Amino acid sequence: MEDLSVTPTVTIPARELHWTASRSGGPGGQNVNKVSSKIDLRFDLEATEALTDAQKARVRASAQNRLDEDGAIQIVVQDTRDQQKNLDLARERLAELIKRALIIPKARKATKPSRGAKRRRLDDKKRVGDKKRDRRPVDE
After folding, report:
1. Residue 105, SS3?
2. Which of 8, 113, 114, 131 has the fewest beta carbons under 10 Å from its own?
3. Does the domain made of 4-102 have the CATH classification 3.40.50.150?
4. What is the mean pLDDT of residues 120-138?
5. Phi/psi of residue 66, nearest 5 degrees
6. Confidence class for position 126, pLDDT limits 50, 70, 90
7. Which residues touch 117 (CB under 8 Å, ≥6 apart)?
8. Residue-wise pLDDT tens digits, 27-84
9. Residue 17 near residue 91, CB atoms below 8 Å
10. Distance between CA 140 and CA 129 in Å, rounded?
11. Residue 49 to residues 31, 59, 66, 131, 133: CA-CA distances in angstroms?
């Protein structure tokens, strides 16, 4: 297996990726009982040297549902009946998961509505209130 390139600056060495194959469930006829096509890919997030501590924390927060008790990310793929295709899919999903976690969200700046926006909001509220008032029956 070759190294997994996540971004131009982040590459996961192949020695840090461990995978096992087992028999997949679902349809497949007699062949499903003979071929091990389901892939269980594991990446030990805590022991990796490819990511900094800050990056590990972001990935850990993002992949919380996929972490096992040892701190490894587990990805299970049984989409196809071909073992190599499932392994390629698992590697792609791991790379995408890490890539999404490494994107730092832009900090939101607190802003206040402008004077014109406040005025327009109040004018609209007044217009709606007048419309409702005009619908009421007239007292004589």
Report:
1. coil
2. 8
3. no
4. 95
5. -100, 0
6. very high
7. none
8. 666 666 778 889 999 998 888 888 889 888 999 898 888 888 888 999 999 888 888 9
9. yes
10. 22
11. 40, 14, 20, 66, 69
